């Protein structure tokens, strides 16, 4: 099973959509978690599960959409339906709970803007522990499902510290440990030379399954065409535990 994620930078420049869709098609993920996306970027043969429409964004703008070509069982309720979305998917007879998210960035002030205005990174420090508690709650509510998190986590993990803070990484590591998750897209797990900078978009998978990054690409094509300000990745996830009958 292959899970991919890509932040599309609000899908600016509609004329570049065919190239974005070509990359999605060739990367060949079974499940996509697209962030800062737009409904018009709809890969053929997939079913969407959308977060709420973004206020004041272009028509069709979303923080997160999950696209699955595996059977969709249900959409799962989340605490923040604007920046998160979750779905229960049938992964070859095993329940897979996919949680897509955009974690706050350096200068994030919340949506709608918080008062007083958060200091740099403060909103990320508030949200990550809350996400960790939600992930654990989802696991308790669906004990037979395997949980996978994907999206824009706005932190580099491993290798040169490209984006984020030590405290933010510590909070995320704690949230992963409580939910028994591993980061499949740490710097050292991405094929050497595939990305210019460590990824800040990630896939978190169950700690007890094998994972492998099978492809990664920059947001700018080799010819210089800018499709996004983020890189994208696809992870191959090994066999999930069987659900009890």
Describe the structure in your own words.
The protein has 245 residues and is of the alpha+beta class. The chain has one domain: 4-Layer Sandwich (Deoxyribonuclease I, Chain A). It is built from three helices and twelve strands. The strands form two sheets. The chain has a six-stranded mixed sheet with strand order 3-4-2-1-12-11, with no helix packed on it. It has a six-stranded mixed sheet with strand order 5-6-7-8-10-9, with helices on one face. Helix 2 runs parallel beside helix 3. The two termini are 22 Å apart. The mean pLDDT is 95.
CATH class descriptor: Alpha Beta
What is the averaged pLDDT score? 95
Strand content: 25-35%
- CATH topology-level fold name: Deoxyribonuclease I, Chain A
The value of Rg in angstroms is 17 Å
- Main sheet characteristics: 6 strands, mixed
Q: What portion of residues is helical?
A: 10-25%
Unreliable runs: none
Please identify which CATH superfamily we are dealing with.
Endonuclease/exonuclease/phosphatase
Number of strands: 12
Order of H and E elements? EHEEEEEEHEHEEEE
First-to-last CA distance: 22 Å
CATH architectural category: 4-Layer Sandwich
Cα shape: globular
List its salient traits.
Deoxyribonuclease I, Chain A; globular; 3 helices; six-stranded mixed sheet; alpha+beta
């Amino acid at each position: 099973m292959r899970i991919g994620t890509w932040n599309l930078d609000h899908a600016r420049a509609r004329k570049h959509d065919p190239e974005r869709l070509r990359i999605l098609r060739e990367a060949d993920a079974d499940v996509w978690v697209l962030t800062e996306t737009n409904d018009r970027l709809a890969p053929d043969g997939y079913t969407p599960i959308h977060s709420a429409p973004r206020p004041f964004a272009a028509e069709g703008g979303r923080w997160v959409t999950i696209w699955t070509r595996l059977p969709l069982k249900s959409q799962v309720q989340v605490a923040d339906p604007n920046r998160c979305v979750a779905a229960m998917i049938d992964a070859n007879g095993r329940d897979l709970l996919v949680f897509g998210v955009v974690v706050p960035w350096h200068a994030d002030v919340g949506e709608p803007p918080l008062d007083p205005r958060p200091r740099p990174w403060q909103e990320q420090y508030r949200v990550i522990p809350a996400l960790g508690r939600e992930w654990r709650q989802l696991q308790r509510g669906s004990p037979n499902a395997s949980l996978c998190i994907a999206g824009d986590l706005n932190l580099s993990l491993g290798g040169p510290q490209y984006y984020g803070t030590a405290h933010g990484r510590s909070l995320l590591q704690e949230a992963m440990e409580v939910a028994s998750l591993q980061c499949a897209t740490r710097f050292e797990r991405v094929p050497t030379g595939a990305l210019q900078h460590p990824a800040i978009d990630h896939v978190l998978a169950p700690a007890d399954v094998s994972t492998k990054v099978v492809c990664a690409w920059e947001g700018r094509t080799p010819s210089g065409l800018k499709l996004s300000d983020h890189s994208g990745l696809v992870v191959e996830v090994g066999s999930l535990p069987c659900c009890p009958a």
